[in-house]
Task: structure prediction
Amino acid sequence: MFKHIPPFAGDPILSLNDDYQRDPRPHKINLSIGIYFDDAGRIPVLDSVRRAEALVVAKGGPKPYLPIEGAANFRAAVQALLFGAAHEAVTSGRVATIQSVGSSGGLKVGADFIARHFAGSQVWVSDPTWDNHRSMFEGAGLAVHTYPYYDERTGGLKFDEMLATLRRLPPKSIVLLHACCHNPTGVDLSAAQWDALIPLLRERELIPYLDLAYQGFGDGIEADAGAVRTLASAGLSFFIANSFSKSMSLYGERCGALSVVCPDAAQAALVLGQLKFTVRRNYSSPPIHGGQIVATVLTDPELRRSWEAELGAMRERILTMRRTLHGVLSAKLPGRDFGYFLTQRGMFSYTGLSAAQADRLREQHAVYVLRSGRICVAGLNTANVEATAVAMAAVLGAATA
Ligand code: LMR
Result:
């Protein structure tokens, strides 16, 4: 019956992480998947999250279906986090928000909505982007293209080329943008570059679709929402999928949201209705538990303070690892400029390692990085950063020699 079913080639990120788990070498180092590990190499259980979960469990009570759009307290807390509770877009009711199954679930619900209601639109993602972006939008039946983004000569942004390409897009094209901590490069737009992008998006009638999976890992919780707030204040209509997987270390609870910023409250009500229709036809309604943990952390003042401090400590630890990696590599290969480790933000850095070099790192040194050359800086710690730098220097140095 199923002989014609093609084998699944595997996912470039999740399969590599599986390979790492199976590797028997004790000194192996995992810089593949985008997960924050603490300095002891463990996925942290945040104290704020643990205490919020205890409160949720203590409340007990029955477990009815949530409304299709998710829990009201979660949705309100997400809007306040993204826009600020007093933002005009929130107070005027022109943001339609649903609780989603991770931000991936939100991205896909938004993609299905676009495929149905903007049937002529095509999607433009940065070159490069998170591998799954393309799969998700293509899975919704949308054609996906790329706009120039990463400049491998400088380890920075090809901003002028990016604008030139976006300027040529037909109206109602979907432009996928990383709100902060670009995955996989760590290269973000500056505030001035976001400001410069806005008139173009407006004049060309493009539809921005923001992905905010790393809020708090770049420059801070508020600063990392800067792009969201700038676009909303400029009166643009746009989509935003956000996640609590990394910022609350709640990966497996699949906590995220999709928000659509609309011109007015009446249109937001229409959009919310169609998002609900999409959800109902897919998985009916989201789960309760993780969303209630998130809502509790965000709305209890004491837990909120504690979470912000814990997230700040994760951000600082990543910056320390960036500085250490930069220092050791610069000392080992003095002719090369590793300054990009210091300017890139968030969990990821694009190292310029080729696929063959990534293979050598894995096979000869047991250091797992993506074949695109992306490393997860949050997988580094005081015990493995030196060994990682030595291995990278050996592979890069061999290429130079
Ligand atoms: C990553 O980019 O490694 C993370 O976002 C995990 C994933 O699902 O790919």
In short: The chain has 16 helices and 13 strands. Residues 13, 33-34, 130, 132, 183 surround (2S)-2-hydroxybutanedioic acid (CB under 6 Å). Residues 3 and 9 are 16 Å apart (CA to CA).
